[in-house]
Amino acid sequence: MRLIIFDVDGTLVDSQNFIVEAQKxxxxxxxxxxxxxxxALSIVGLSLDEAFxxxxxxxxxxxxxxxxxxxxxxxxxxxxxxxxxxLYDGAKEAIEFLARQPQTMLGIATGKSVRGVNHMxxxxxxxxxxxxxxxxxxNPSKPAPDMILKALAETGADPSATWMIGDxxxxxxxxxxxxxxxxxxxxxxxxxxxxxxxxxxxxxxxxADLLRHLG
Length: 215
Prior knowledge:
The protein is of the alpha/beta class and 215 residues long. It is built from ten helices and eight strands.
C-alpha cells in the first residue's frame, strides 16, 4: 500500500481571496494594519498562531487574539456571497481517481482546522475517502514532521511508499523531515524555485501531471 498525503489551501482549494480578506478583518478588528496581500499569502500552510507570529515579525503576544478574530471572520464570511472554497481544476477528479486505486490510501496534512476540513468534505462528499486527516488542532505547525509521522502511524504506511503533495516550502520541509517523498505544485502560494530548494523531488503544473508522476 502507498499513502498520498495532500495539503489543502493552495493545493486542493483556491482560498487565497478568502484568506486575505479574513486576515484583513482580523487585523482591523484589533486596530492593526493588515499585511500586504503578498505577505498574507506567504504564510499560508502554517497554523494560525504561528502564521500571525510571523506576520508580526516574531511577536507572539497578539497572535492568539488575531487567530480568534480570524476564525470569527472566516465563519461570518462563509455566509457572504462571493466567498467560497473553490477546488482547483482537476482536484476533485484526481482525488476520486486515486481513491479508487486499491493500492492507494489518501491523507490530509493541513494548517486548517478540523472544522475547515470537514466543510470541504461536506462540499465534495469526501468523508469516506481519506484514511488519515491531520490538522492544526492536534499537531504542531508545519514544517514540524508530526502530521506526517502521525499519518504514517495511523495507516501503517512505509515512508518509502508515502508522498506529500503541497504548494509551500513548509510542506516540502515537513516531508523531508519525516523521510517521505515530496512533490510540489505550481498553482499555490510559493514559487517553483523555492519548492525545489526546500526539497521537492519534482514539481508539477497540473493535476494531470501529478497523476502521471504517481502512476
